[in-house]
Amino acid sequence: MIPVLLFFLLVAATTAQTTSTNSSKSPPDILFIVPDRSTPYPNGLHNGILTSAYNYDADYSVEVIDYGNYDQAKSFAVLNAAIDTPTEQQPKVYCIWPMDVESKRLAGKLFETHRVPIVQINQLPDDWELDHLVGYAGPKDAERAGNAGIMMGDAMKERGVENAKVIALGYPASYGGYPLSIEAFRNSIDPSIDIVKEIPLAPPDLRQSAYIEIVNLIDNNMEFNGLYAMDDAILLGAYEALNDRGRVYVKGGNDGPDAVTLVGTVCNGARELLENGKQYGTTIQAPFLEATLAFDQAMEYIETGKLNETIRFTPNPIARGDSWDGMVVDFLGKAYAADSLCTWNQYHERINGLMDTFDTQNACDWVDCLFIPEGLFIAGYAMVGINYLLILVGSILLFIHRKKKIILLAQPFFLSLILLGSAVDTTSIIFMSRDSRNYTRRELDNGCAAFVWLLTLGQMLTTATLVAKIYRVKRVTSQMRPGATNIAKKTKVTTKDVAGFIVGGLLIDIVILAVWFGTAPFKWTTQVTSQDFNGIILQAVGQCSSEGSNAWVYPMVIVILHLLLLVYANVLAYQTRAFHIISDSKMAAVCVFNSIQLLNIATIIVAMSGDNVSIAYIIKACYAFLNNFGVIALMILPKLYQCYYNKGDDGHSRLATTVVQPSHQAGYISGLGNVSHIDRATLCNNRASVSDSEANASPPPSRRPTESDIPEENEVE
């Protein structure tokens, strides 16, 4: 127990000693409450405070408390702590840089609570502050803005621009110096110059806000020849946006009518712009001198109890690109090189840019984008031309030879639908051959929608027509299979009987597409592929896509549906293989198998292509081209070829008899012999029919076929 008691007594004694030491510590004579050194401008202020304290002969104590890099919460905490400090522990003078209006109110509360005089730094005092605070040390906003207006007028005269249009970018509207600066700029600028837009920027990142504002102005085709920024740091954001579009004016370099002359103030940007002629001019503003002036006012008040001048400004002279390096500024009896007073960086380092593709109408105007080579688009149009030529020639020849027996047997209505579906499908290549280089956002969105609808419905029309065509023959020949015990009755299957495949397939696709576009529209989007450590987009790619995590479900359902239909078409072709002369099952099987392969390969490669839009385009265009080219080449061109060379009616003179086969020879068609061994010409001249009454009858006498033996265009019996 005794050691524990001794420990607590020791702790209590130490605490009492510490408290006594703290309470006896003398408060500083001058207390600065300012931002920290993390940015150039406040860093210059800190240097001025230290230099002034060192150079002043009197033995006064100085303390600096910072509130971070313009951290509002820390600013409030520091000011509230000062308010809570007992009056006897208060300094003789406060020198405060209030970061915003709320901080100003706390500074006012500090004065009312303890009546300690306050010298306000940098931020212009309002009416209440002018009546209560002891002094102000900082730049004169109206003077520097007026000098900027003078420089803008001179710059436009040197360029020879008449009736120039100028943009003004400023601090947030809540900043007290904003209205003073804008008014001074208006009053000093040449009357012939039109200020077309005055923009107070949104905090906290004014430089990035300036970049986005210029992006919006250019996107909206705003015409302007000059730009004034209340701060060179703000000007850097605007410069980066203009430079991205090649619109920064440089005398003897980029001096076209669309080039923009840059005029700033405060000299806290990049000296390189002045050196290279990319910035016409700025004004000298020195936080070092602000600290020197505030310290001088504080010492004057401590020594005399008053100030002869409560409002004192630091100088803001004009510095043009061709004169800044030789400038000297006189202040408080000393001469300073202008370059040493400015807080600019020697070189420009980009830290602003497009960070979100939604900040502009077309991100590819501002960042590097991956585009499909123009040569591939030309190849795509060539594919369209080839298929269009085949479809046009095929349609004309199909109409001319529509009464030929080979065409009638092949069912010209279905052949016409195949050509129509191929035309619709092929047209999708035109709409997928677009990007933001030549089309607006709205045109690209419409193109994305047209591409999907045309490709989907065109393929469905072609595939469903093939299915309907083969299924119709299957229905007719369903009771003529080898191994059947009877010969089937005459069967009549019209086009309407199988139209459900076509109409139903199209309706299902339309419903899926409607739900897809209603919930996750397939439209043009620009996706980021690369960013730097600041979040600036370095590279992007534009392509058609849908937003939403489940958007992939809709195209996958369409692919599966079409794949199942193709497989069913292949099954039908196999089932009617014994009657391939009627059903074209051999050619249909090859055609459908080709489509299945193309669909599977295209789906897999496009899914794996990622951001490589060139590969994705090649695969999609080749799929649309080859799929339709194959259908036309296999299902239509061979028939038209025979008709073109007058072979569409061959075999009419070589057929002399109609033979009725017995029931044990199932798989035969009356008058044609074994289906698997007769030629197409023989088939073109005979009606594929059989009846129960003929099943066991003796062969009738031969007769010459008539026109009634040829199937009608829209029916197969």
Helix percentage range: 40-55%
> What gross morphology would you assign?
elongated
Strand line-up across the major sheet: 2-1-3-4-5-11
Cα(first) to Cα(last) distance is 116 Å
Q: So how many helices?
A: 23
- Which structural category do the helix and sheet elements fall into? alpha/beta
According to CATH, the fold-level topology of the domain at 361-470 and 499-568 and 582-628 is: Rhopdopsin 7-helix transmembrane proteins
Give the name of the CATH architecture of the domain at 361-470 and 499-568 and 582-628: Up-down Bundle
- Computed CA radius of gyration, to the nearest angstrom: 43 Å
Averaged pLDDT, please? 83
Tell me the β content.
5-15%
CATH class of the domain at 361-470 and 499-568 and 582-628: Mainly Alpha
Using DSSP, what is the number of strands?
21
Pfam families: 7tm_3, Peripla_BP_4
Subcellular location: Membrane
Keywords: G-protein coupled receptor, Glycoprotein, Membrane, Receptor, Signal, Transducer, Transmembrane, Transmembrane helix
Transmembrane segments: 378-400, 412-431, 451-471, 498-517, 552-575, 587-609, 615-637
Folded structure, characterized:
The chain is an alpha/beta fold and 717 residues long. Among the domains are: 141-286 and 316-358, Response regulator (Rossmann fold), CATH 3.40.50; 361-470 and 499-568 and 582-628, Up-down Bundle (Rhopdopsin 7-helix transmembrane proteins), CATH 1.20.1070. Strand 13 and strand 14 (334-337) form a beta hairpin. The protein is elongated and about 125 Å long. It starts with a helix and ends with a strand. Residues 1-23, 483-488 and 651-717 have low confidence and may be disordered.
